[in-house]
Amino acid sequence: MDVTLEKKIRALRSGAAYESTGEPIEAIETHFAWVFLSASHAYKMKKPLRWHGLDFTTLAARKHSCEEEVRLNRRLAPSVYLGAVPLVCREDGTLHVGGAGHIVDWLVVMRRLPSHLMLDHAIAAGTAATLPVESVGELLADFYERQPPIDFSPSAYVHRMTAAIELDLAELSAPDLNLPRRFVGSVADEAQEACGRVRADLESRARERRIVEGHGDVRPEHVCLSDPPCIIDALEFSLDLRTIDPGEELAYLSIECERLGDISPAERVLDRYLQVSRDPIPERLIDFYRCRRAMVRAKLVAWRLRDPALREDPSWGERVQAYLTKAHEYAGRVLG
Q1: 5-111 in CATH: which number?
Q2: b/e string for 226-261 if b means 16 or more Cβ within 10 A?
Q3: Residue 257 in contact with residue 265, Cβ under 8 Å?
């Protein structure tokens, strides 16, 4: 039975598709999914798309991705991710979440979190200073300690960094993006030089088996300062992107908090992590990782410029430039 994406979206916008009828439903479109919000729950349906190595074009692939999203996110948000449930078509042709019928898609069902406790909202509202941000450092220290290490030889881990910088340079230099190639090249050169300066630190991280399967996308909008805190939206689609040094993940949070106008919550998280973990991370290595993550974010934002609907919006190009400028600044801190 073939049910169009448009029919699925219409049904999920309607309260009749859910067990609790009558609740207003808010629909939010992201790059990879549609998210439908009731007062108490969120339902995520992945788009049947193929993009940069992702392939969600089959029902089986979307089911697997939903199940992986639940499994991985229960590590840092166990009470939030309730399960993967089918979207079914009943005999009368109506679509419903769960129950008997022909399965036409799969949804991730989550408990809805209070927006005022999300770190990005707290930064925007100026309330982060009053919230227990340090608890996120404790959460991550416990999480990383429980993850089995992913082994790299010291030289292989350094190569992973240099190869990633080369890949980002190639992506950001694509002619269709129309980015300032000289500046992009200069930032990549600085990142490579900074990598050379912290080579001994990188080798030590590999030797000490610090690399783990982490979250992969610890940004302020994914951090909830509830009691206990939780972190949502792990990168379920790529083990490689989740293979990470805790220091790099913490550095990523810091550049994203800084972009929102207040780096201090991330600094509090890092300070608490360093206090409670048995993982001393050199400050120069954190700065190198900040440089790396800023380049990655520049690349991801730049890809959005290929969307005809966004290409004429100057704010996207400005965000790319801002990330590249931050990469330049943090490389400069490593280089002295």
Answers
A1: 3.30.200
A2: beebbbbbbbbbeeeebebbbbbbbbbbbbbbbbbe
A3: yes
In the prediction, which pLDDT does 215 show? 98
**Domain 119-335, CATH class in plain words:** alpha beta
pLDDT score at 22: 62
CB atoms within 10 A of CB 35: 17
Tokens of 16: 């009749």
pLDDT tens digits for 216-248? 999 999 999 999 999 999 999 899 999 999 999
pTM (predicted TM-score): 0.93
Type of residue numbered 269: V
Beta-carbon contacts of 89 under 8 Å, excluding residues fewer than 6 positions away, are 1, 3, 95, 101, 102, 104
Q: Would you kindly state where each structural domain of the chain is located, as residue ranges? A: 5-111, 119-335
Beta bridge partners of 87: 97, 105
Closest CA to 231 of 327, 308, 143, 116: 143
Pairing of strands 230-231, 223-224: antiparallel
